[in-house]
Design brief:
The complex is a heterodimer of chains A (about 500) and B (about 300).
Chain A lengths: L9 E10 L2 E11 L4 E5 L6 H8 L7 E6 L2 E3 L4 H7 L1 E4 L11 H8 L4 H15 L14 H13 L5 E5 L7 H13 L6 E6 L2 H7 L2 E6 L2 E6 L6 H9 L17 E10 L9 E9 L3 E5 L6 H9 L12 E3 L2 E2 L5 H6 L2 E4 L14 H9 L5 E2 L2 E2 L1 H14 L16 H13 L5 E5 L7 H16 L3 E5 L3 H7 L2 E6 L2 E2 L3 E2 L5 H8 L12
Parallel strand pairs in A: 3-8, 3-9, 6-7, 7-8, 13-20, 13-21, 16-19, 19-20
Antiparallel strand pairs in A: 1-2, 1-4, 4-5, 9-10, 11-12, 11-14, 14-15, 17-18, 21-22, 21-23
Chain B lengths: L1 H30 L7 H19 L2 H25 L4 H19 L25 H5 L4 H19 L1 H11 L1 H6 L4 H27 L11 H11 L4 H23 L6 H5 L1 H14 L2 H7 L13
Helix pairs in contact in B: 1-6, 1-9, 1-10, 1-11, 2-3, 2-4, 2-9, 2-10, 3-4, 3-9, 6-7, 10-11, 10-13
Classes of the chains: A alpha/beta (about 500), B mainly alpha (about 300).
Chain lengths: ~500, ~300
């Protein structure tokens, strides 16, 4: 560091943070220059969030120095970080739902509401972050809420903006819009620290990347020139495994059949289902592609039994040849359905309960309950097995579901449902929030389960994932479902066309 | 007939006032995320102390002051339990409420059945002389007007000031409020204290103005009606005001019907406000979205600052 002219904005020297015996950050060095978008890349649990909290003053490091514009600082609180010019947008938003956008912002940027509304509009126009300052946050989409968070940070004129996995909460269609906003920031003197485990995003957006692995800096790279596999090797220390995906046997019996299903969406802003038909055979994986918000959530609720049809409509949904549309979730599970919902907390698990208790939630049928009494031993063995085979990073089966990170909880839920050896498995967003290495493992396990004869339906927004694991693909758009195409005979472009509603091209093809 | 009508319409302002005062206090406490079920006991203690002081000193103002302070003192126990010791809000509220009822009976036992003179009704030049509306709206005691004024002030505090905004967001999500640097426990302590003071004033009004006599158990469920009013008004001041007046009318229905010579069993009418409470709560609870947007989301959940 003998070159004085290009003074760094933020420099970390030997930052170490321990939790008991566990070293979350081990002698981290990091330099962020003015006007750069700097990526912090790493798997779940690599220490990214711990490092960001150190920078933002949420906690103090055990060792090491923080230099801000060349001068050493003790970052004692988020308030101090903000005063220096560091803003942060967390994964979990700090917004109150029952008050307006402007009122939310006024809590940290005190100003008369009318002035603030004007400023919010002005910032919005400048950076392409349109949001109505008078709207209640309650009615805003996740993408809009994120915009409010970013505007709030920008109104404090930060020199550095930290974004913690900002795309993990966004539908893919909003990601490009966010990137366009972020690319404008460096020209206006704002550096960005962009935390992510998504390689393609970092390559599309960032100027430099620091890769963390197991709490240490594994290396730095220029993501504009590095390939995804080079970055991945730095991140997980080996090549990304790709699932082995041999063609399925095509002669399995039809396990799940949906025919002519139409349903009005109880959510007034939701899409109605229109004449949906679909079949999933034993030993195959059928993928439903499509941008979220095209009826996937109502469809999964109807398939899982969270919403039931009237007796007269029961045969619109059939499992193993019997009408099940009128049966509730419990009944359907009893005849061999397992289900991974999109909503991990609240539907997939009971957040304030332990992992063992959450095993019991759906696995109680597999011998865990005798004469109404719970066999703790069976329950705990089941839970431990699930934690081990799915590589769930947790302190053990007693951990509360709410204490796990999103990706780890997802692994647990998918594992739990797969261990039930279901006849039909419905999985919504199987690898949502799971990092690259673990996602490949989850996909491989789904394929293995397929080979044991389970009929699997996967609903995902990640096209690449669907191509990796599914045998047949359908596309959902505006509450309708396309005819199936053989996923080995199509390509991303064709599916992409269907995702914006051009079903015609493929009508009548493979089935 | 007209006289009866005027009597009821005018009287409802008085019967509504203790309900309004207590409900506004509870509204503030609940908006901060604390449900205080000891309102009934706090009103009773406020009523007892206010009556004793007013009886001895002859001053209503001192009575109100004493009643309010006594109730705040009682609420310190509740605040300690709920904010410091993290005790369950429902159980703590019930326990402190029972204590308040017992204390009121014990402290004022030698005042049983004594009476004092009520506050006089104001005569406002010209306005009071107006036909019908004059005696109904412009011939009330000063506390009635103060109550109405307070409702206006409270509504604008809640919607227009930074303090009101902080109160609301602490009640919605204390964790986020804490992370943004607001003092959750202090906000809740102030809200509980305000609620207790209002309950004390409500009790003082009941025992020194509305029915200026002391008798054990004289609050007869009005604290509970005030609690129900908060839900009835979906945590909005002016709806609570309207509700208080409606319940004020219902409390008078018994007298009114008798004076009109209609023969309905009086027990049936006396129970009317309580039946009305149940019906209203059932109807209001159906509108989930309205409840969701106005009800304090963290209501009943304690907040423990993590260190």
């Amino acid at each position: 560091m003998t070159d004085i002219p290009a003074q760094s904005l933020l420099e970390l020297r030997g930052i170490t943070k321990r939790y008991g015996a566990f070293v979350a950050n081990d002698a981290i060095n990091l330099i962020i220059n003015p006007g750069e978008i700097h990526a912090i890349l790493g798997e779940n649990g690599a220490g990214k969030s711990t490092l960001m909290k150190t920078i933002y003053g949420v906690h103090m490091p055990d060792e090491g120095q923080i230099l801000w514009k060349g001068a050493e600082v003790r970052m004692e609180s988020p308030g101090m970080a903000r005063a220096l010019g560091i803003g942060m947008v967390f994964q979990h938003f700090s917004l109150f739902e029952t008050v307006t956008v402007a009122e939310n912002i006024s809590l940290t940027v005190p100003a008369p509401l009318a002035d603030l509304e004007e400023k919010i509009r002005a910032k919005g126009d400048e950076f392409g972050l349109q949001v109505n300052p008078k709207a209640l946050v309650h009615g805003l989409s996740v993408g809009e809420r994120q915009r409010v968070e970013i505007i709030r940070s920008l109104l404090q004129d930060p020199a550095l903006l930290i974004l913690d996995e900002p795309t993990s909460v966004l539908p893919p269609s909003s990601v490009e819009q966010l990137f366009q906003t972020l690319r404008k920031l460096p020209e206006r003197g704002v550096s960005i620290l962009y935390i992510s485990h998504k390689l393609d995003e970092i390559r599309a957006l960032c100027h430099r990347a620091t890769v963390l692995r197991m709490g240490k800096v594994a290396g730095t790279a220029d993501p504009r020139t590095a390939t995804s596999s080079e970055l991945a090797r730095l991140m997980i220390g080996r090549d990304i495994p790709h699932p082995v995906h041999p063609p399925s046997r095509a002669d399995g019996e039809v396990r799940l059949l949906v025919q002519g299903l139409s349903q009005q969406n109880p959510d007034p802003y939701g899409v109605d289902l229109k004449d949906v038909s679909l079949e999933v055979r034993a030993g195959e994986i059928v993928g439903i592609a499509g941008v979220s918000g095209n009826g996937q959530s109502i469809l999964t609720r109807l398939l899982s039994g969270e919403e039931v049809l009237s007796g007269a409509q029961a045969d619109h949904i059939q499992m193993l040849g019997n009408p099940v549309g009128h049966l509730n979730a419990e009944h359907r599970r009893r005849i061999g359905l397992a289900f991974v919902p999109e909503d991990r907390l609240g539907r997939g698990t009971a957040p304030p309960m332990s992992l063992s208790e959450n095993s019991l939630l759906t696995a109680h049928r597999s011998g865990m309950v005798k004469h109404g009494f719970i066999s703790r031993q069976k329950r705990d063995v089941f839970t431990d097995t699930c934690i081990e085979t799915m590589d769930v990073r947790t302190r053990g089966r007693h951990s509360l579901a709410s204490s796990l990170s999103g990706g780890n909880l997802q692994k647990f839920i998918v594992g739990r449902e797969m261990m039930l050896s279901p006849r039909v498995l419905i999985v919504s967003q199987p690898t949502w929030g799971i990092d690259v290495g673990a996602a490949a493992m989850v996909r491989q396990k789904l394929i293995d389960l397929r080979d044991q004869g389970t009929a699997i339906l996967v609903i995902s927004e990640e096209l690449e994932e669907l191509f990796e694991i599914s045998d047949r693909l359908v596309v959902m758009f505006d509450g309708k479902i396309s005819d199936p195409v053989n996923s080995r005979d199509t390509n991303a472009e064709e599916i992409g066309q269907m995702m914006i509603g051009h079903f015609g091209a493929t009508r009548g093809e493979a089935a | 007939m007209t006289n009866t009508l005027i009597f009821i319409l005018a009287g409802a302002f008085s019967t509504a006032t203790p309900l309004l005062l207590a409900a506004m206090g509870e509204l503030v406490a609940e908006k901060s995320g604390v449900i205080n079920l000891s309102i009934e006991g706090m009103m009773a203690l406020g009523a007892a102390i206010a009556f004793m002081i007013a009886y001895q000193s002859g001053s209503h103002a001192l009575g109100f002051l004493g009643g309010g302070l006594a109730s705040v003192a009682l609420s310190l126990i509740f605040s300690t339990l709920v904010l410091v010791l993290n005790a369950n809000q429902v159980a703590s509220g019930l326990a402190v409420g029972i204590l308040g009822l017992g204390l009121s009976a014990f402290l004022a036992r030698s005042f049983e059945s004594l009476t004092i003179i009520s506050l006089e009704k104001l005569d406002i030049p010209i306005l009071t002389a107006l036909p019908l509306i004059g005696p109904v709206a412009f011939h009330q005691d000063v506390v009635v007007y103060l109550g109405l004024g307070l409702a206006v002030a409270l509504a604008s505090f809640m919607s227009k000031t930074r303090g009101g905004l902080i109160l609301r967001v602490v009640g919605e999500d204390p964790h986020i409020a804490h992370s943004l640097g607001f003092k959750v426990l202090r906000t809740r302590f102030l809200a509980i204290s305000f609620g207790a003071a209002m309950a004390g004033l409500a009790g003082a009004y009941a025992s020194t103005v509305l029915t200026p006599l002391w008798s054990d158990g004289m609050i007869i469920g009005r604290g509970w009606i005030a609690l129900a009013l908060v839900v009835f008004g979906t945590w909005r001041v002016f709806r609570i005001l309207l509700g208080a007046y409606m319940f004020g009318l219902a409390l008078l229905a018994d007298l009114a019907v008798q004076s009109l010579g209609i023969r309905i069993p009086s027990q049936l009418l006396t129970s009317a406000p309580y039946v009305m409470t149940i019906i209203v709560l059932t109807v209001v609870s159906k509108d989930a979205l309205r409840i969701k947007l106005n009800a304090p989301i963290s209501l009943g959940e304690n907040y423990k600052p993590s260190k």
